[in-house]
Amino acid sequence: MNNNMNNKEKAIALINSFTTGDVTVAQELLKADYIQHNLLYGTGRDAFAGSVQYLGSAPVKTTVKNIRAFEDGDKVFLHTVYNFAGAGNQVAFDIFRFDNGKIAEHWDNLATITPPNPSGHTQIDGPVESKDEEKSAANIEFVKHFIEDVLMGKNPQKTPEYFNGDNYIQHNSGIADGLSGLGNALEGLAKEGIHMIYNKTHQVLAEGNMVLAVSEGTFGGVSTSYYDLFRVENGKIAEHWDVMETIASKDKWANDNGKF
């Protein structure tokens, strides 16, 4: 393993080990007491290495395609498409926390890849680079206020203030572009008795104009983890990608670290 790799490169090398089955990558990059928040896997470096070994020995090769990689302080967040041992393509957000050059902690959200949305966008297309890195802190605060005002419904009348008219690119598989598309989708869900509720935001990370928020709530009454990636342009939300995942019931947890 190249000791000169930066944290983004280390995070990508770690997820790529799923394709090779090379457990030495995990052993070199992870702290022994690595904390795992994917509730379906055991915690610790040895548990991760065991997963790498298992996937490496599977009859169908695992594929990994990283789409975006961003960094905020001691954390790297990735937007990636996985196909674990031929089980089908999944889109994921991964967050890795580093400590003294080693990966110490991991959070993620995964969902099945779906066809393009009503506006023709996929869950992964669009810009992959960040800009305006000097605005990271301001963009974090902007997104925090948006989540509180709009997604948590504390000040819904402020919704238009966060957008440039109806100019808004949407990558959620069921929602069309524009603030109008978002409104129509939420109205349709409400008519079916399905409500998307955000209760708490646990992390907001940014590299310039790319801001990832990790929130907890319910979707249709079911406990749900929301990972929302926003592209901020000129002080407005210009583009949005997301991954929603049902939080597994506690009897299915393989570790006690919690989802968040």
From TrEMBL:
Gene3D superfamilies membership: 3.10.450.50
UniProt cross-references to SUPFAM superfamilies, sorted A to Z: NTF2-like
InterPro entries: Cyclase_SnoaL-like, NTF2-like_dom_sf, SnoaL-like
Superkingdom: Bacteria
Chain ranges of the SnoaL-like domain: 13-106
GO biological process, one term: polyketide metabolic process
Annotated coiled-coil segments of the chain: none
Name used for this protein in its record: Polyketide cyclase
